[in-house]
Amino acid sequence: NPRDIAALAHRPCDLLTAQQAKQFGLGLPPRQYNFVLGTLGCEWQTTARDQALIRKVNISTFTNNPTLEVVYSKDRNLPFFELTEIANYPTIITRTNADIPICDIDVKPAERQSFTLTYEALDFRNDPQKSCELGKQVAAAVLMNLPLKS
Question: SS3 for the chain, per residue?
């Protein structure tokens, strides 16, 4: 059941609904930004006076790119590398530093289509892997918001 990232590639901030963002404790409105190769990304961030409590989610989309294959070939020697699935879609989860609670999740819902979700939660410094657990939940929500590819 491939899902179509191209349908939302020009509106990456629609990858999470406002209700989902609130459910994950993220602030609104999100901020759209220009990303690599002419693509767009979106960032959601919690609002907290204490910088150490801020959580961020960044999502970028790729609509004609073998992203997972590239990630597999270049990142498999990182301190944390996991091949898995989220909602039955191939996924690679990486962390460049095992001690820092920043998790990169690359999901491939269709051939040559993918999204990268980075989940950062500095309050998880004592349990950095927890950033990946929450990031997986956000990625599953994003997948359900993508329309099925016709």
Answer: CCECHHHCCCCHHHCCCHHHHHHCCCCCCCEEEECHHHCEEEEEECCCCCHHHCEEEEEEEECCCCHHHHHHHHHCCCCEEEEEEECCEEEEEEECCCCCCEEEEEEEEECCEEEEEEEEEHHHCCCCCHHHHHHHHHHHHHHHHCCECC
**CB burial readout 14-51, b (16+ within 10 A) else e:** ebbeeebbeebebbeebeeeebeeebbbbbbbbeeeee
pTM, 2 dp? 0.93
pLDDT in tens, 49-74: 776 678 999 999 999 888 888 888 88
